[in-house]
Write a structure and sequence with these properties.
By secondary structure, this protein is mostly beta strands. It has strands at residues 2-4, 7-14, 19-25, 35-42, 51-56, 59-68, 71-79, 89-98, 110-112, 118-124, 131-137, 147-154, 162-166, 172-177, 184-189, 199-205, 209-217, 223-229, 235-241, 252-259, 263-268, 274-280, 286-292, 302-308, 316-320, 326-331, 335-339. The protein has no helices and 27 strands.
């Protein structure tokens, strides 16, 4: 879910019937009639169940997976406007592999960099289990020849997830959930990032943790990371670092006052303060929003708001409006939208 100019929008992969959808809304988004929704692409066999989207200087970009002839394909689509129309999109297969985790449909593996390029993490060929690979494209990103890629980490990653973001300086920051018992690893690269030699890393946590990670860059290049666990009933982990982040001792850790659901979303507001959302329950699930304005390493500093009967507790996406209030999308038996009552009649403006 993203905010650009006056529009909230989303891209979602529908796994049962195999299609990729876009939806956008200008204002009064609590009214379903205000959303313009269209199918971007039909995905063979219903296997294409992971998608990641990001705002670019020219519109919106999405990376998603398809399955043709028993081989996973990474596709990229770009759109400059009127994106609920399929004809507004340029689409292309850029790599062999898969996006994100086998467990869900939401990925945070695509980011736009300050120079206008796209940065992507994906699970490598032939079936998305052999490696985590990094790829970058400077322009014409629906053309496979425009991408440079390399193996970032080797192992068994079929069931595991990753996320990346790009700082205003151009530094790339990534977190990767390791194989069984291997926890969560943080990686960074300042330049020439299609060379593995230019990446450095540190393990942030060990054990059966690291599920559905998110990473954000805050003021003064501080880093914020959330993640969960593959075991149910465990709380959301929140870790931050202000400098020297390749030394694990420089990370501050907190346990948030909510258990991790199937997916976890992390955003920073204009003041650099974190908002976290998660959702769980497969029928009329519960969505939890957490916010902290100071001393966020203390569990007691977080406020919690719960929303009942919003979707089926699967994937979750969040954006903040110009008043700093959260807008939510939760998947499961459709895509469900929520906003605070005090923003229902506000025209969203920058």
């Amino acid at each position: 879910m993203t905010l650009a100019d006056t529009e909230f929008d989303f891209v979602t992969a529908e796994e049962e019937y195999g299609s990729l959808h876009y939806g956008g809304c200008v204002q009064n988004c609590q009214d379903p009639a205000r959303w313009m929704v269209g199918t971007i692409d039909s995905i063979y066999g219903g296997i294409g169940a992971n998608a990641a989207s990001t705002r670019t200087s020219n519109g919106i970009a999405v990376a998603y997976e398809d399955w043709q002839g028993g081989t996973g394909q990474v596709k990229v689509g770009t759109c400059g406007g009127v994106c609920f129309l399929k004809t507004s999109w340029r689409l292309g297969v850029v790599r062999t592999g898969l996006i994100g985790s086998q467990f869900g449909t939401h990925s945070r593996a695509l980011a736009a960099d300050p120079s206008g390029g796209l940065d992507l993490l994906y699970r490598g060929a032939p079936n998305g289990s052999s490696s985590i690979e990094y790829a970058r494209c400077a322009s014409a990103c629906t053309d496979s020849a425009s991408w440079q890629s390399m193996v970032l980490d080797s192992g068994t990653f079929l069931d595991y997830d990753d996320a990346l973001t790009v700082a205003p300086s151009g530094t790339i920051h990534a977190v990767i959930e390791g194989g069984p018992g291997n926890g969560l690893t943080y990686l960074a690269c300042d330049s020439a990032c299609t060379s593995r030699a230019n990446w450095t890393s540190v393990q942030l946590d060990t054990g059966e943790v690291g599920a559905t990670p998110s990473i954000q860059v805050g003021p003064n290049d501080a880093l914020y990371v959330t993640y969960g666990s593959r075991s149910s009933g465990r709380p959301i982990a929140f870790v931050t670092c202000s400098s020297g982040c390749l030394n694990v001792a420089n990370w501050t850790r907190a346990t948030l006052p909510a258990n991790a659901g199937t997916d976890i979303s992390l955003l920073l507001d204009a003041a650099g303060q974190p908002w976290v959302a998660t959702s769980y329950g497969y029928y009329k699930g519960t969505t939890v929003i957490l916010h902290c304005s100071a001393a966020c390493s203390s569990t007691g500093s977080w406020t919690t708001t719960s929303i009942d009967s919003l979707g089926d507790g699967r994937d979750i996406a969040m954006a903040l409006d110009v008043t700093g209030q959260p807008r939510l999308l939760v998947s499961g038996a459709g895509v469900h939208y929520a906003q605070r009552p005090d923003t229902t009649v506000l025209a969203v403006k920058r």
